[in-house]
Recover the amino acids of this structure.
């Protein structure tokens, strides 16, 4: 069976909202266009405009209710929705206060409070200090769902590109070669080691699975998905064939 690109996701504000796309540009310098362009710094972190680890920002691993935020990039800003909130249209130039106010108790009060909305460096504020594209395999997600005993929503993993048509865990073999999607060429980097973020259900915003324990019990791993770098810039679209 031919493997194809089935879903594209990006996250305009790190840890706060997932956005579904039908196509997106990939570049060596910025990886997925519009992904993790902003991040909401917490007040325990250094107040600098540079890449920082995820613990320095508001993110799902520490605030599971954030998992239920959806995002949409518009011509006028970034629109966010949540089951317990009215839609808000954020203009990043207005800073952190409108976003922090809208979030309210979606962020735990015992965690470091929101501080400043940071504009990410060109590589984006991903979890790794290089311009990265994360790739997941829907067959592996189905195997994980079978192990868990219920369907696991792909949004839990905040992966950019999901492919279908591979065997379960065959995405690991992709790390042995370069791949092509659409007009972009990507070079392999490494497996993605997981944290607690995927424990949170993106519909309810509650933790309803111990994902690391599930992965370890089934496959003796804490990894799910793979990182690639963009070698040749291009556009990828849903239904592109993986070559």
């Amino acid at each position: 069976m031919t493997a194809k690109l089935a879903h594209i996701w990006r996250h305009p504000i790190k840890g706060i909202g997932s956005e579904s796309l039908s196509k997106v540009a990939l570049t060596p310098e910025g990886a997925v266009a519009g992904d993790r362009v902003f991040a909401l710094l917490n007040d325990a972190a250094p107040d600098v405009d540079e890449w920082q680890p995820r613990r320095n920002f508001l993110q799902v691993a520490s605030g599971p209710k954030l998992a239920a935020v959806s995002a949409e990039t518009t011509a006028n800003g970034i629109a966010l929705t949540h089951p317990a909130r009215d839609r808000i249209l954020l203009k990043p130039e207005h800073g952190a206060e409108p976003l922090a106010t809208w979030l309210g108790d979606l962020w735990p009060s015992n965690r470091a409070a929101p501080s400043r909305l940071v504009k990410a460096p060109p590589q984006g504020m991903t979890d790794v200090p290089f311009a990265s594209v994360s790739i997941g395999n829907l067959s592996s997600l189905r195997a994980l769902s079978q192990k868990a005993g219920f369907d696991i929503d792909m949004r839990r993993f905040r992966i950019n590109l999901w492919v279908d048509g591979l065997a379960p865990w065959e995405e690991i073999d992709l790390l042995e070669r370069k791949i092509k999607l659409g007009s972009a060429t990507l070079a392999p980097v490494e497996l993605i080691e997981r944290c607690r973020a995927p424990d949170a259900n993106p519909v309810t915003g509650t933790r309803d699975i111990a994902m690391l324990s599930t992965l370890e019990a089934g496959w003796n791993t804490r990894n799910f998905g793979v990182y690639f770098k963009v070698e040749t810039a291009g556009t990828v679209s849903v239904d592109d064939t993986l070559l």
Remarks:
- The CA atoms of residues 68 and 202 lie 4 Å apart.
- The chain has two domains: 4-31+128-237, 34-119.
- The longest helix spans residues 138-148.
